Amino acid sequence: MRKAISLAVLAACASLAGCAIVVIPDDGGGTRVTSVFGSSGVQGNGQTVIEQRPAVDADSIDINGPLQVEVKVGSAAGLQVEGDSNLLPMVRTDASGGLLRVWVDGKVNSSNALRVTYTTPALRQIQSNGSGRLTVTGLNGGALTLSQNGSRQVQLAGHVSRLEARLNGSGSVTAAGLQSGSTTASLHGSGKLDLGRVDGDRLELDVRGSGGVNASGMVRNMNVRVYGSGSASLAGLQSQSAELVTYGSGSITAAVSQSLVASSNGSGYVTVYGNPLQRNISGRNVTLMQ
Description:
By secondary structure, the chain is mostly beta strands. It has 3 domains: 2-35, no CATH class; 47-123, no CATH class; 124-290, no CATH class. It is built from 1 helix and 23 strands. It has one helix at 2-17, and strands at residues 21-25, 31-35, 42-43, 48-53, 60-64, 67-73, 78-84, 91-96, 99-104, 108-109, 115-120, 125-129, 132-141, 144-149, 153-168, 172-189, 192-209, 212-228, 231-247, 251-265, 269-273, 278-282, 286-289. The chain has a 19-stranded mixed beta sheet that branches. A two-stranded antiparallel sheet has the order 1-2. The chain has a two-stranded parallel sheet with strand order 3-10. A hairpin with a 5-residue loop joins strand 1 (21-25) and strand 2. The protein is elongated. It holds the Pfam family DUF2807. Keywords: Signal.
């Protein structure tokens, strides 16, 4: 009876979703359920090859799809793609106007990752959408803009004069190996954003959702706003002056030495380490730790 009910529920779900379900008896008297579309996409043949593609002159990169991408900054230009031999034609690369576009043309199914390695003398902009990984090493002093949408895990290393980072979704950006000047960053969603060491004039930070941001270093001014249940962990970032505001149940921790404007709106809290002489505080959940 229980099995019949389960099968009926599955059949109803299938009709509503517009998909086909196959029910297969197993050896233990139960059933195994699968979808005829469960393995959609081109199946990799398991024969891994490396393909060298023509070098391109681009200081910006746009990545779409389930790719493992490594960008090495500071070397002569080069482009390499690795994966199952029958899937490599589906990994498309195109360069024009200083922008390298990398994407997967269609759906693929393989136990081997599709890998792209790009070397470039300079990198100033990254646009990333989807899942997978992105590793950038050797950043060499220029300004960098990063926009990440989706669940991709991004790692950054080197130094940049200015950083602008936008993270949307459940992905992560880890810049523990990065040193940057003035920084503007936003996190929307449940992701994690590690800004690494910030040594510059200013940090501008906007957090919305349940995600978390942390940073270390030293700046003159800091402007931080947290909406929702997210957090900004900035006790390791020394600031001369700061404006810190929470809306909702989120939290901010920061270190401020001279001038402070702090406001807690809702059940969230603001914790400040230091003894700033100029203070403008509102909300009962603002705490100074000397």
